[in-house]
Design brief:
The protein is mainly β. It contains no helices and 28 strands. A hairpin with a 2-residue loop joins strand 1 and strand 2.
Length: 528
């Protein structure tokens, strides 16, 4: 059965032409040749049809005079389509990591908060007011103490031996993240320093003296220049037997909205394909799905070959059936803010932000829906400084180019079975079709951020020896110390397009001070 294939590459519609004909078979009269179905494209200048943007007019029809050209009187006006270009201002999507202190309602043992949003003010840093989604990755709790050893049996006349003391708990692993200023540590645009170690003084924080490893992640600069595409016709010849389209792509380094020859970074030839098939036309029948087929509505697509040439797809001619159902709408994320006065702010004044999912679809963030609370505090007024001398006027700078780009989008989902102790699945990309949603074809990067595992229980203390007859029973041995939890961090570029850091955690089962490969229980990737 023939199909029409319309591949889309970098926003350019590549046309594949299908020509129908008849096949000869021995002992039968030849049927009349079918007419070829042709498609033509024509660029549309900015004006009445597309306003301030250019576009493409796509026309189709049957080659009635068989000259392999779609003449004006052969165009099917009911199938003519006009595609107009459009650009909207976009903001860069950013991700920031902040510490979650011990005692937090969501993470009692501390952890890391993953904050995502759009850089609205263009500062290159994700401000708290720009947070759109926030998810917390929690540390696991310490393993419970081992059970005390049982007392030894009493001697005939001796006193009972005293119980052995409990073993001390192993040290918890701790992590903290500090900012790297612009230009420091070879980071031209600043970044983050991830420090790890063991909480030796058991204060729930990673002190300077406890830092045993650090890893610096530098921020990267985003290229603001446009990516341009230029299409040109390839005439039939050695490059393309049946003609085609040359697609050239590159960055507009000169910012003149023209893709010059020196700016072409890649090119590809898209040749027209000619396929001889049965004179019978392929037909598609589309009907609305029943509620029994799709609870939320959808469409039933049926296709096949019009063998009786009645220009209708009969039930006996159906070869394939495809049911496409509408998906279930997800919950909307909501954020509310209110004036705050209290001890959470050094100045006692600020703004309290509450966020969560609108699970009851009422458009209001109810108290039961709040999953995260944060505060933006007003600064304490400082002493006014002495007025400085007026500086000399600087030379006026040149006007910058006004560039329009696609909006960057970020979506997060529950990680489900991918994380044993829960976590989030983060997807990001550009809204190239400008529909306000991050479609599957627009996803450029995806990551899974899992919560840490709970610590292992400590070993049971050994039983005390039986007391000798007539003498006092000997004291039981002290319980064994709990095992330490360790963290490994190292650079990796396999899972991250621009490089990043791999964070591995686990219990030091062989107590050698190193987190071996078979001791790793959880792995997280933090990408630049």
């Amino acid at each position: 059965m023939p199909f029409l294939i319309w591949p889309v590459i970098k926003g350019v519609l590549a046309i594949t032409t299908v020509v129908t004909g008849s096949l000869l078979s021995s002992g039968c009269n030849d049927g009349d040749d079918g007419y070829s179905s042709l498609t033509a494209t024509q660029s549309i200048a900015a004006g009445l049809q597309c306003g301030d943007f250019t576009g493409v007019e796509i026309t189709t029809g049957l080659d009635m005079n068989r000259n392999n050209t779609l003449d004006p009187d052969e165009v099917n006006v009911n199938q003519t389509q006009i595609l107009c270009g459009q650009r909207v201002d976009g903001a860069v999507s950013l991700v920031s990591l902040t510490d979650v202190n011990t005692g937090d309602l969501v993470c009692p043992f501390g952890g890391i908060s993953v904050n995502t949003g759009l850089d609205i003010d263009g500062s290159g840093m994700l401000q708290q007011s720009e947070y759109k989604y926030t998810k917390k990755v929690c540390n696991g709790h310490d393993g419970v103490n081992g059970v005390n050893g049982t007392n030894g049996a009493n001697g005939a006349d001796g006193a009972n031996g005293t119980n052995g003391t409990n073993g001390t708990n192993g040290y918890s692993s701790a992590t903290r993240i500090i900012d790297v200023s612009i230009g420091a540590n070879n980071c031209a645009y600043g970044g983050k320093n991830i420090q790890t170690g063991l909480d030796a003084n058991r204060n729930g924080l990673l002190d300077n003296s406890e830092v045993t490893g650090s890893n610096i992640i530098c921020a990267v600069q985003v290229n603001d220049n446009k990516t341009l595409v230029r299409n040109s016709v390839i005439n039939p010849g050695t490059t393309c037997t049946n003609g085609g389209i040359l697609v050239e792509v590159g960055i507009d380094d000169s910012n003149n909205d023209i893709l010059e020859a020196t700016e072409v970074d890649s090119s590809v030839n898209r040749c027209n394909q000619v396929l001889v098939i049965s004179g019978a036309h392929a037909k598609i029948r589309t009907t609305a799905a029943t509620q029994q087929q799709c609870q939320l509505g959808g469409f039933l697509f049926q296709s096949g070959t019009d063998n009786d040439y009645d220009n209708y797809l009969d039930n006996s001619e159906i070869e394939t059936t495809e049911l496409v159902c509408n998906g279930v709408d997800g919950f909307d994320g909501l954020v509310s803010s209110a004036y705050y006065y209290g001890t959470q702010c050094p100045s006692f004044e600020g703004t309290e932000f509450q966020s969560g999912l609108d699970t009851n679809y009422n458009g209001i963030l109810d108290v039961s829906e709040v999953t995260n609370v944060s505060y933006s505090c007003d600064g304490v007024n400082g002493i006014d400084g002495i007025d400085g001398f007026d500086g000399l006027d600087g030379i006026d700078g040149q006007d910058g180019w006004a560039l329009n780009g696609y909006n960057s989008l970020i979506e997060t989902y529950d990680a489900g079975f991918a994380c044993t102790n829960g976590g989030i699945y983060v997807e990001s990309g550009l809204d190239t079709n400008e529909n306000g949603y991050l479609d599957t074809s627009e996803i450029q990067n995806s990551d899974v951020v899992c919560n840490g595992l709970n610590g292992l229980d400590g070993y049971d203390g050994a039983n005390g020896y039986d007391g000798a007859n007539g003498y006092d029973g000997t004291n039981g041995y002290d319980g064994l110390d709990g095992l330490n939890s360790l963290i490994n961090t190292y650079e990796d570029s396999f899972y991250c397009d621009f490089g990043g850091v791999v964070i591995e955690t686990g219990i030091d089962l062989d107590d050698d001070g190193y987190l071996d490969y078979d001791e790793v229980e959880n792995t997280n990737y933090i990408c630049r």
